[in-house]
Amino acid sequence: MKNRWLFVLSAIGLLAACYVAYFSTITRAAQPPVFHPASNPYSDGIYAEGIVESAQASGSNINMYPEVAGTVKQIFVKEGQTVHAGMPLLQIDDSIQRATAEQQLSQAQAAHAMLEELKAEPRKETLDVTIAQVQAATASLQTAKDELDKQEAAYKLDPGSISKDALDSAINAKAVAETNLAVARRQYDLTKAGAWIYDVNNQEKQYNALQKAYAASSALLGKYTLRATQDGVVLSVNSIVGAYVSPQGAYNTYTQASDPVITLSNGDEHLHVRCYVDEILVSRLPSPTQMKARMTIRGTTTDIPLTFDRIQPFVSPKIELSDQRQERVDVRVLPIIFQVERPRNVTLYPGELVDVYIGH
Asked: Within a domain: residue 250?
């Protein structure tokens, strides 16, 4: 009985082996491609990787970085929104800087009030006091003179009627009264002359310094509002309310690097395509007047003609766009910028990678 089952299992295994051997020899027809890959339209054309960018003078997008650091308080725009030059894009918390500017404004106002006070001298009430002091000193001098005249007249009539000590006291009293009058008159002249010109100049300089400090503080306060530098379209907003931003940008959790806080394009109907030609192929490039190019969008058969714009005459290391600071490569490339009119029936965005073929 046991040998019988072994025979059955052996027969099943032999049949299975024959089945697999037969079907493995059958050649199956190849599956049709999902799309037909683009081919080089030029007989001696050069291939290069390209990236779509907004049509800027530098060939790149407008990357917005704040000039100050702080916590995002409010975001005024959305991605895809059209903005105009000077329009606020993002507000950073400015409470400390605003308080500093207000303090410096108060100090400048106090210094200006002191300057106006110095320029307004002499004050009428103060001048009236000095006039009264002169009048009082004049009256005291007249009293001292009258007393001395009486003492001298009595001494002439009868030297024994007035002691020498009393006569000397009267003479000294007159001298003191004359001195007091002289001091009162000088005090009047000083008050009437007003503030010393050096005090006025010093206070004026202090006021100007505080005013400039307030102007600088106010200018810095304005930096807490990030504004559009020109008309354009918001491509990306890389921060949220409550996040920390700095002049280095906004921290990206995925790339662990800093990104621009906001990226703008110029919103023009034209786009630029920046392609990087390997330095080995630079010698095969046609002259700019004869250069032609076409691009294809990856994953499609869409073929779009390009118009030569310019060459950036500087061969630089090719870097990945994700982490430029840490990327180390030996390939060096020459950037060439082409212009393309925004297609009506094709979706094309800045930052999109395309295949570029260059010929003549």
From this structure: yes
